[in-house]
Amino acid sequence: MGGEKRSSRKASTHSSVRKKASPKLTGRIVLPGNAPYHGRRGCFNSFPKVIVYAQKKQDIVNAVRWARHHHVPVRYRRPGHPYDKRVPNYKGAMVIDISEMHRREMVNKGSRRILTQPIGPSPDRLIGQKRSILEGGLTDVPGILVGHAEDESGRTGCTVILCPSGAVPGVDVRGGFPGTIQTDAIRPGTATDVVQGVLLTGGSNFGLAAASGVMNWLAQNGIGAPTEAGPLPTVPGAVIFDLIYAKGARRPDAEMGYIASEEANSGPVEEGSVGAGAGATVGKIYGTPMKGGVGTASWKIPGGPVVAALAVVNAVGDIWDQDHIIAGALRPNGTFVNQTRAILEGIPPGTSGSRNTTIAVVATTGRLTKAEAGRVATLAHDGMARAISPVHIQSDGDTVFCLATGTDTSGLTGDSAVTAIGTTAAVVLEEAIIRGVKAANSIRPRHGGK
Q1: How far, in Å, are 190, 245, 294, 359 from residue 187 at the CA level?
Q2: Where along the chain is composition biased (Basic residues) (predicted)?
Q3: Under a CB-based contact definition with an 8 Å cutoff, are residues 380 and 215 in contact?
Q4: 411 and 377 in one domain?
Q5: 278 lies in the same domain as 340
Q6: Distance CA 197, CA 300 (A)
Q7: What is the C-alpha separation between 425 and 442, in angstroms, rounded?
């Protein structure tokens, strides 16, 4: 767990950037002042600062964020591993105990990642199943870092995906009204074969200003193409329209992009109403929209590369999980409109369908050329179409980026790699979209936003 060492730059240089509050611990917490502490402490060879008995994966994420915030070392206890033998020193540390979880969580101390396996049927039948059982996130691809920053009101923000060692890029823009930066530079036939990051941001076109902050952070850390004037990073990006929901909020700018870059790390990715998803909403043709957000998922192809996705879900359409709507336009009585059916029945669309766009990044350890990465981005849109309906309309800016780190050693290349990675990318992107709305922190948008 954890990630790359961060800079000490503070968010306080601008009063309207939300400072990071102390994260809250969740799960079953045992503290030194609690009655069960000494009984539980007896399992250890010294006195831990806090013991977190995680009940679900988010409890682990929250615990790690708390430990980082308070500069407390983290120790793990996995099921089947005794406390009293061959264990590290727990004195003053946070102990994350995962023995009570309903899923088998394996903490890889070398890579500092949580590997999750469901207890029950094998996930080998994932492709073709109606119900996805994916876990993980974009940072399951080694070399990929993710960071969020938001306005202090929490109504807009940006999400930065960094690949300091570089990645082969691809992009496919399907929406009719995109807001992007440097997408032409990464299309096949251009000289840019490697990028150092991707920006996903709120603020509509105004939010593209955050890209300069990301590039400044990268350049200051020596990351980018070498030139006589110093490192020159390439950071393509895309925006969502959240200006109605985020009315009165500070728009993402260079400082916010810089802060998100400082926050970028290889640990578990925070989901929901964070970063670029802070002001995201879904279901905007008819009725009242619901809250959207950031979601992520990953999959390791057996014997092959890792494929992962991160989505900022700000869709005009409804969000579907299998054959039912889980978020979208609401009637006054709180039931779903089913916008696709309403269109088929000839109900005139409303005017708020112009305020949308879903943007995403798929990343893989696979070895791809720039043209192949672009094709993977194209195939990933299939997952967007499965999870969102309607999608890719004239006023959408739906965009998918692909980042290929090329560290896979399975030998999967060429057309076979594109087919395998692209098909898997569609599956993980579909799941990321579903998770993004499920993790959103409110049902209806604040301040009457559409």
Answers
A1: 6, 33, 26, 17
A2: 7-22
A3: no
A4: yes
A5: yes
A6: 22
A7: 28
Q: Are residue 104 and residue 167 in the same domain, yes or no?
A: no
* pLDDT tens profile 204-262: 999 999 999 999 999 999 999 999 999 999 999 999 998 887 777 789 999 999 999 99
* Nearest Cα to Cα of residue 201 among 164, 236, 166: 236
Residue with tokens 């207890």: 119
HSE, side-chain direction, 13 A CA sphere, residue 120: 6
- Of 120, 155, 172, the one marking the end of a domain is 120
Establish whether the linkage from the previous residue to 390 is cis, with ω within 30° of 0.
yes
Which pLDDT does position 132 carry in this prediction?
A: 41
**Residues constituting the chain:** 450
Q: Residue 295: which residues within 8 A CB-CB, separation 6 or more?
A: 271, 272, 310, 311, 313, 431, 432, 433, 434, 435, 436, 437, 438, 439
Neighbour-count burial of 2, counting CB atoms closer than 10 A to its CB (0-12 exposed, 13-18 middle, 19+ buried):
middle
Closest CA to 157 of 57, 11, 363: 11
The DSSP secondary structure of 126-155, one letter per residue, reads: -TT-SS---B--GGGSTT-EEEEEEBTTSS
Let me know if residue 131 belongs to a domain.
Answer: no
The residues with which 63 forms a beta bridge, in sequence order, are none
Q: What is the count of structural domains for the chain?
A: 2
Distance CA 410, CA 97 (A): 34
Separation of alpha carbons 242 and 302, rounded Å: 39
List of E strands, 48-93: 50-53, 74-77
Q: Which H or E run includes 76?
A: strand 74-77
245 lies in the same domain as 97: no
Residue tagged 């098909």 (tokens):
423
Judgement on whether residues 295 and 396 belong to the same structural domain of the protein: yes
Structure tokens at 362: 């798929």
CATH code assigned at 39? 3.30.43.10
Angle, helix 254-263 to helix 210-220, in steps of 10 degrees: 50
H or E stretch covering 375: helix 370-387
Give the tokens for residue 138: 């974009």
Convert the pLDDT of each residue in 66-113 to its tens digit. 887 888 887 766 543 433 333 345 677 888 887 676 544 444 444 444
Average pLDDT, consecutive stretches of 10 residues, N- to C-terminus, the chain (450 residues): 38 49 84 65 62 84 83 67 42 78 47 39 35 73 96 88 97 89 93 96 95 97 94 96 80 95 93 93 87 95 96 94 89 88 84 74 98 98 94 86 96 94 97 94 40
Q: Are residues 115 and 154 in the same domain?
A: no
Q: Which single residue is written with the structure tokens 């994932």? A: 126
Domain shared by 257 and 338, yes or no: yes
Between CA 394 and CA 353 the distance in angstroms is 10
